[in-house]
Amino acid sequence: MSFDDAYGALTDHDDDTRWAYGTGFADPLAGVPAAIPPGVDRAALAEYCLMLGDDALIMSHRLQQWVTLAPELEDEVAIANIALDLLGQARLLLTRAAEASADVAPAPAAASSAAAPAPVAASSAAGDAPVAASSAAGDASTGARGEDALAFGRGPAEFRNVQLVERADADFAHLVARLLAFATWRLAVLDRLRDTADPILAAVATKAVKELTYHREYAAHWVVRLGDGTDESHSRMQSAIDALWPLLAELDHEPSPLAPTTWRPEFNAILSQVLTAATVAEPAAAPAESSAAAPAESSAAAPAESSAADASLSTEAPDAVSAVDDAAEMSLPGATLPPTHRGGGGGGARAANFEISPLAESGRDGVHTPALAEILDEMQGLARSVPGGVW
Amino acid sequence: MNHEWPLFEVFVRAKRGLNHVHVGSLRAADHTMALHHARDLYTRRNEGVSIWVVRSDDVVSSGPDDKEPFFAPSGDKAYRHPTYYAIPDSVPHI
Questions:
Q1: Per-residue pLDDT at B47
Q2: Which structural domains are found in chain A, ordered by start?
Q3: How far is A351 from chain B (nearest CA, A)?
């Protein structure tokens, strides 16, 4: 009877014990076998996890620097949430990198911490025989020290992140433009890694896709708001896109054999649609492969191309895009907000060290702008002054 | 800073809850941004599965002056509660 069904909703859950606000957290790696399958090249897996982990770690740090500087308190929390999502991804990926191969870990000289070399050796020994490694407490602590050694024990030349993530942002428009490109790229890549051979990398990708979908949506809305806002916000958004554009060429330089290669059409389509909605022009000096992609970059042709490239995304991309379109059509009160008021002064100075490197010098090969060294000075400061310190 | 963003009230439905509960307020430029902000501010500790946002100036509220005529009259009508009535021994299953 319908009367009974209404109350049936009360029991529509799996566990009814001690539930309360803020409980019910789940481990994204629960039930995922930790052993590396025999067919997987351990060195390649370690390297690629390192690249993806470094991207997330450095981008997270740049986002964290905006906390206390964002134009609104609400956006500050949003940016902090995104930074924490990325930090979580970085931790899992760096841990996996350390598990997969000892070679990615910093040399003992670099990591003066006495604890650093030990876990690396341990995970290597465990990995030589692909036993069904349990993700019990022993492995977990090993992984934690592996991730710390990688995050805090390496110098700039050992980091493998793309230069896109290390740049400082001149103002809030630069931040959201960069975040849009980063989230769109990473979402397209990780979406294609959900069925990769390594179960842990696949599980991290599956978890990250949900997070990145929101990151992309958040950034896209702001790009549209500012681009389609006042004259001032529009010109700042345009200059942010102009500054972003040269950094996108590097994304095509992906040395890892595990890296998906089919993400470009989706990336170009999404970016093009957001910029169209934002009434921001794509810079004339387009990113790599643009000579081939440019004719198809009209917003009308883009969705078809995107879904053709990867049917699994056909349900996701239009959602994000339609939301963006909705935002574009609205008569935005946001047009009156002053989100970029910090653009001058200190903000401008922070971007002064940003230089575009030729494609041949990619962050994936360990070539970075001076901005990365600055980040590491800050991020590794404590670990350098108190080697091996815990609390 | 004198910004122009209007105030929104936020209601979140918890996983096990059947109703949306008022959890706080925030400022946003429009409803879409208010939903995003509500997600970022009020559900980051796994609190909810659904969000409502309502413009605060769309909420019609009773005022302090209404207190006596609105609420005092029900204060002495205990017979409106089922527990007011004694159940005869001859009525089972209650």
A1: 79
A2: 41-120+130-385 (1.20.1260.10)
A3: 25
pLDDT tens per residue, range B11-65? 998 877 678 999 999 999 999 999 999 999 999 888 788 899 999 999 999 988 8
Report which residue type is found at A194: R
Q: Does this complex have an ipTM over 0.90?
A: no
B37 contacts A337? CB cut-off 8 A: no
Of A160, A369, A347, give the one whose Cα is nearest residue A247: A369
- Higher pLDDT: A58 or A319? It is A58
CB under 8 Å, gap of 24 or more: what pairs does B20-24 form? B20/B50, B20/B51, B20/B52, B23/B47
Distance CA B62, CA B70 (A): 9
Looking at the partner chain, which of B6, B16, B46 has a beta carbon nearest the beta carbon of A13?
Answer: B16
| Under 8 Å between Cβ of A201 and A45 | yes
Rounded Cα distance, B19 and A67, in Å: 33
Q: How far apart are CA A181 and CA B31, in angstroms?
A: 25
β strands within A27-107, DSSP E: none
Which residue in A167, A247, A222, A254 sits closest to A337, CA to CA?
A222
Per-residue model confidence as pLDDT tens digits over A184-230: 999 999 999 999 999 999 999 999 999 999 999 999 999 999 999 99
